[in-house]
Amino acid sequence: MEPMLFFIFVLIIDSTLYADIYSKPNRLEEEMMKIRLYEEILYEGQDTNQLTAVFHTAYKLIADKGQVYSHITVDGIDVYQDPLASLLAAGKAVENVVIKAVSVEKFKTEILCSISEYISRSIPELERLSGKFYLNPDQEAWHGVSQLLEGIQWIEKAVLYLSTNSTDTDSESLLLKFNVIEEVKMLEMAITQQDLVLVGDILKYEIISRFTNIEQTVKDVLKTKNGVEIDVIS
Q: Where are the domains of the chain?
């Protein structure tokens, strides 16, 4: 599993959760950052040039156990962003990093929960966004459309992973239920034609309808996985 898939989850995570990581004062030179996995210290030091190699080793150890990377905790704060970028941005403000891993089944359940959360947040936002295109869409409205397309791309990648790693016979049916290709094509065509009313209509009547169906599909799938917990392994 490519670690990059999880980094896209930041689309639905409030970035303010991580503000404390970057607001800490710089540590003294003698204080070292410790990176742990499975309760073992993988790295202790301050050389950020070593981070890529450290995480490469971590990903291999995780894969060898038949698990997948989940996220990191930085001084007790869960971070779902790119771990390397997050640690480089924090610099010497970081003391303790714990790399989290989950089983494949738990990871798949986490993906479904993340899709459900993203969809539930998106539907009311799409209602508001569509209304702007019936009037005079501002820069924020166009940014909202851009974010929507990014979110749909994330859903497609997530569902492709679920389907590829599914032992169920209906994996193809799952792909069809989550398919938003036609709606995206209509939206892109309306944007190209600069038909703002049509953009609003597609957002309100096509995208929201599809998202509502996806939301119900996720609920149905999660019911069958009700016994699967989504705790993580450090």
A: 4-105, 106-224
Q: Which own/partner contact pairs does 142-147 have at CB distance under 8 Å and 24+ positions apart? A: 145/187, 145/191, 145/199, 145/203, 147/11
Q: Count other Cβ atoms within 10 Å, centred on residue 118.
A: 23
- Give the separation between CA 130 and CA 145, rounded to whole angstroms: 10
Least confident of 11-20, 22-31, 63-72, 155-164: 11-20
* Helix spans in the chain (H): 4-7, 19-23, 51-64, 83-90, 104-133, 139-164, 171-177, 181-192, 196-201, 208-224
Taking the CB of residue 226, how many other CB atoms lie within 10 A of it?
Answer: 8
Could you give the CA distance from residue 15 to residue 25 in angstroms, rounded to a whole number?
19
pLDDT tens digits, residue range 53-66? 999 999 999 999 99
Q: Does the pLDDT at position 226 exceed 60?
A: yes
Instruction: Give phi and psi for 136, each to the nearest 5.
Output: -135, 95
Is 211 within 8 Å of 122 (Cβ atoms)? yes
Q: What CATH topology corresponds to 106-224?
A: Four Helix Bundle (Hemerythrin (Met), subunit A) (1.20.120)
User: Would you state the structure tokens that stand for residue 192, as one six-digit string?
Assistant: 């190209």
**Three-state secondary structure call for residue 214:** helix
**Residue 135 — φ and ψ, nearest 5°?**
-110, -110
